[in-house]
Amino acid sequence: MSSTKYTLDRMEDGYAVFLKYPEEEEQIIILQSAMNKPVVVGDRVQIEEIDGIYHIDILREETEQKKADIQNLMDRLRHKHQ
Fold this sequence. Notes:
- The protein is α+β, with helices and mostly antiparallel strands.
- The chain is built from one helix and five strands; from the N terminus they run βββββα.
- Helix content is 26%, strand content 40%.
- A hairpin with a 2-residue loop joins β1 (4-12) and β2 (15-20).
- The protein starts with a strand and ends with a helix.
């Protein structure tokens, strides 16, 4: 597997479910114990599989920008309904 960007969608039953960025239609499911570091839901990451270990690189800047975009959208929606 080459290095590809994903967004962590959810954690369930010891597995991390990532959606491929940017379309988020394709998913990859990885056993948490096979990852080299912990991640949290919403993190944008780059994943590279080497010898059965998934090397996760958290893209902090992209993650923060995505969270800010979502917060701005939520704020606009809240003000629209007032």
